[in-house]
């Protein structure tokens, strides 16, 4: 395996991993067929497993609603103004984390019921590499729970259901594409960010993720966003949707690239206490004036659990692909395209 640093005017702008003797196994047309199969099959099985209904979702939301995802807080959404609504700015979504909860309340979903949708987003500030693209395609999902279900047990049980569907998809893909399937571990393990910091205090957060997934195969890394004992955070999370004490990422050790691959970010959503606390920590208390945030503080929206599952990431994982561009059509710098083509990595 080699790592190429792609530069522009002497500055490194991208990192590209090239596996040794890479063999994509499937042709581009076969890959396209496999993508369709995985996406259609997974969403049906996932919806049944978690009792989720498929809903249509917006690609853009008005800035004034506060419904867009802030991600880590520094990424700027693609935005524009409309001729018919000149006094507000429309934003291409980063994700539908808040919209889903708003919609569950609006449509009258009850505890135990939920929704999923095909979410397409643009994150123009994303740093590109083998697994990151400015185009994000994922199954965004959300499910109503009761106040009493806002627990770690609920979170872990839901993660196990999602892992079960992913494992079943491995077998489905193996049946249709036996030469291409990437085999997955049989179990998911649960670990907190604090446990990783205690074990590897001198590692970066990314190095800790790589170390634990290489050791265990697949982990659900919990409690992301809040400060650890060191005063540092493992990774950024928006302050106004996940409860930082009840969230996490599903990570697989990915042998083709020799590092962890995140498939899902999810969590139990904030109640009014958690949101007020986290917005204060983040210095974003001004967001409490927005409609969505007012509704949370007034307890007008249901308690929920939800997250996103990367569609291209899942295809990449199941098919053993070296680059996310092999399973999605996006925009890539010419230098990266030349490097990947020379290595037999066929970008769509």
TrEMBL record:
The keyword Nucleotide-binding applies. InterPro entries: aa-tRNA-synth_II (IPR006195), aa-tRNA-synth_II/BPL/LPL (IPR045864), AsnA (IPR004618). Residues 36-333 form the Aminoacyl-transfer RNA synthetases class-II family profile domain. Its EC number is 6.3.1.1. It comes from the Bacteria. It catalyses: L-aspartate + NH4(+) + ATP = L-asparagine + AMP + diphosphate + H(+). GO terms for molecular function: aspartate-ammonia ligase activity; ATP binding; catalytic activity, acting on a protein; transferase activity. Its main location: cytoplasm. Keywords: Amino-acid biosynthesis, Asparagine biosynthesis, ATP-binding, Cytoplasm, Ligase, Nucleotide-binding. GO terms for cellular component: cytosol. GO terms for biological process: L-asparagine biosynthetic process. It is found in: Cytoplasm. Pathway: Amino-acid biosynthesis; L-asparagine biosynthesis; L-asparagine from L-aspartate (ammonia route): step 1/1. HAMAP family: AsnA. Belongs to the class-II aminoacyl-tRNA synthetase family. AsnA subfamily. This is Aspartate--ammonia ligase. It comes from Lacticaseibacillus sharpeae JCM 1186 = DSM 20505. The gene is asnA.
